[in-house]
Amino acid sequence: MSHRCSTWFVKSGKFACPTPNCRSVFAWKRNLTSHLRYQCGREPRFKCPYCDYVCKVKADVRKHIRVKHRNNDVYVIDIFQSWQIIR
Ligand SMILES: [Zn+2]
Ligand SMILES: [Zn+2]
Fold it and tell me: Is the pLDDT reported for residue 3 higher than 70?
């Protein structure tokens, strides 16, 4: 994990995640650091709801469900969005 300190910016006294599409904001820089290390940008982020299969590409999870869980609903769980279900 490379440090990208120059891309960190402070928004109203808080530390915002520099990753595009990520709106996480932290009061402490160390929280942002651990967010970047353990959550953000960590691949994969999309999970199969029926097994432990995870993938960074949403479409691949759908493909996996169609093949491996043929009789089930096809939807994807986004681990980064608090396990939000994406249909
Ligand atoms: Zn982030
Ligand atoms: Zn699966």
Answer: no
At residue 9, the pLDDT reads 52
- For the beta sheet containing 84-86, the strands, ordered from the edge strand earlier in sequence to the opposite edge, are 54-55, 46-47, 76-78, 84-86
Distance 64 CA to ligand 2 centre (A): 6
CA of 74 to the centre of ligand 2 (A): 10
Residue 69 near residue 48 (C-beta atoms within 8 A): yes
pLDDT above 70 (res 41): no
Cβ–Cβ under 8 Å, residues 64 and 52: no
pTM score: 0.49
